[in-house]
Amino acid sequence: MMSLLIQDQKIIHFLNRISFGATQEEIEKIARMGTPAYLEEQLHPERIPDPLAEEKLRGLKTVRLSSKELFELYPPPNQAKSQGLTISPQMQGPRYVILELQQARLLRAVYSQRQLYEVMVDFWTNHFNVFAAKGADRWLVTSYDRDTIRPHALGRFRELLLTTAQSPAMLFYLDNWMSVSSDAPVRQLTTNGKPPARRGINENYARELLELHTLGVDGGYAQKDVEEVARCFTGWTIRRPRGEAEFRFEPRMHDRGEKVVLGTKIPAGGGMEDGVKVIDLLARHSSTARFIATKLVRRFVADDPPASLVAKAMEAFRQSDGDLKAVVRAIVSAPDFHSPQAFGAKVKKPLEFVASALRTVAADTDAAPPLLRYLARMGEPLFLSQSPTGYPDAGSSWISPDTLLTRMNFAVDLASNRIPGTRVNHEVDPLVLAAPEFQRR
Amino acid sequence: MAFSRRLFLKNAGLGLLALGLPPSFVVRAAEGEKKNRGRILVVVFQRGGMDGLNAVIPFKEPAYYSLRPSIAIPEPASGEERSIDLDGFYALHPALAPLKSLFDQRRLAIIHATGSPDNTRSHFDAQDYMELGTPGVKNTPDGWLGRCLTKNKDDSTPFRAVALSARLPRILAGSARALTMTSVEEFRFRNESFATTLQKLYATSGDPLMQGGAKSLFEGMTVLKQIASSIPPATESYPNGRFGASLREISRLIKANIGLEIAFTEIEGWDTHVNEGGATGQMANRLKELAEGLSAFYRDLGDRTEEVVVITLSEFGRTARENGNRGTDHGHANVMFVLGGSVKGGKVYGRWPGLEPEVLYEGRDLNLTTDFRAVCGEILSRHMGQKDLGRVFPGYKLPARPLGIVV
Prior knowledge:
The complex is a heterodimer. Chain A is mostly helical. Chain A has helices spanning 2-18, 24-33, 35-43, 51-57, 67-73, 77-82, 88-91, 94-111, 115-127, 137-149, 157-165, 168-173, 204-214, 223-232, 273-283, 286-300, 307-319, 324-333, 350-360, 369-377, 401-415, 430-434; strands at 236-238, 247-249, 259-261, 264-266, 364-365, 422-423.
């Protein structure tokens, strides 16, 4: 009996870490097929049919549209007015696009059978954060989620990194699309009396690429490296941010001189490959392996990542050349993953808390604004982290008097069916969802 | 003191008696007056790295105009969109016009070329260092505003430190409990009947993080319930948006006399890498919101301005030279504003380091001549009566000669 309880506890711990909350159904499934087989299935989301999530997302039309279509169909509100658009979602312009994106994220977290995949999508969304309310990004983040993050969330880190580097959403968010070699020929912009376009690098993307996407802030780079990396990425731009939003390399903007990045010489005369070389250099750098391993262990195990587990994850990262499946497998299959200190040690972020509560009560929800507002009040309005760091993972960031109050109010409102658009199917005492234990996973 | 005590009884007492509250509470509140009407420090964090050189313009520095051909703010003597002369050398950005009269009334002090001495240009690290109060040291467990609370006084009021944000900022992290709230009105339970049970659940959870947060929450709620209806509405109109709203709530908490010592709020959107704008545009809009918010707050305080000092902080300044996109990249030294009734304002403090190539920090940024801890430390010691600055800013020694920013 005792060992059975421990076995159950282990399954619940495992599920709470690789999903948005254990459910009875999944607990039974693991009991039937065993954890290793279940994990392998979760590591291959393409093999898991997902009819419920698809059904839930059917009404969200914008998540299937291209950036160009979104810009044409949901122009800025003032423009919509002048075009005589009267359909109400279109009158909201790009705000409606972001709303559907938020709905889709929450619905998938609650209903998708590909739970580990959704956890990884959320992880990379924050790692490669783009603020969806910045200018043209209002129309670009839908494609960023669908075409950049999701195809690689359990793929190879190098591909994920390259795809983000070439995504219009990231190029716009971190300004690289406007970064121009200081030797570039000046284009004369005479339209509406603007002065000529100026030249010079913009180091915003280069810095965050090193600090947040790959090496980590203590990963061994200097200000000079930031500038050199920025020079390598000059010319990586967007055809037209509002409209034909596609990646484009513009040779006239590119700095063709020699660069030295982290001691590696990138010879003069290069073009787009300068940036690709930097991506390759960074993706295989040992600081990157350490940084990504540390963050993933923090996500799956503990805020203060155990060194032994980080070492294992790093090793998996290196041996597999950045295969994210291998890294995740190494972390969640390691014996220390099940150490008693790890049980319930992680605080649920707002998305994790809300999704797990909805899963616990088997809610029927449309994830409409009344529900999304709770997430915002708990500090995590989806896709709206203004800072490039994305939303933090450490528990202390998420628990404060005010966020606890919102969590308690949400628990009571949910359990008593007071959230419009959300219905409880499996009745639960609100105190269960509001309790301190339920704030952790 | 006698006068303020009388005033307090008149204002608060009559209000509460009119509401039919038990006299015992009034008596207790009056006894707590000394404690509950002390000095207050308000910290405003400008996240993203404000471009101090375009906020307070060194218009007599010729290099300023050559470094910034498209975003420089015209000097005060020029025509349209000109800056506002402060002292013949520095000028205010025109969007900061609401602060000019406070400067003239000597209630606003400005410190130029100030900030954190660490050379990081990472938003995250620079904000952390500034909030932890230990530039260069990351593993400091608590924020400096949190540290000035502990041991200083008793913890009888849950309102000693309030952050007007959902999440607790690093600057208040630590041993002392701090309250977070978005507004007085929203700080309440949807269903009171669960409150007692929840309070017990959290108190006995054995989970320090949850216990601490819930303790502040329930205690704060208890106090607010007693006095909520007597908290005066704001008398000034604040700029739209979260920043203005948070200053309005801070002013109400001050007037509620519930023992507020430290308040924190933030204003985002200073990371102007592209199209920063000059006299108008992106940054000008932020400055306008900042200035309108601060001046409304100051006016709203009425006769309480002597008790309050506001400090602004931003993690770093920006490159002296504009970049290729009419913007600026992450830099070093910056500008701080200090506002309050006891501030010796009307002056731009700090030694000006110049903008010539050879004096720029790492060849690109405004050099630092005043550590932000010198400014904060002086205000903590002179205004807040903080005696143990060594604990607030470990490893830092205040300069021998004080700046003299507060009376």
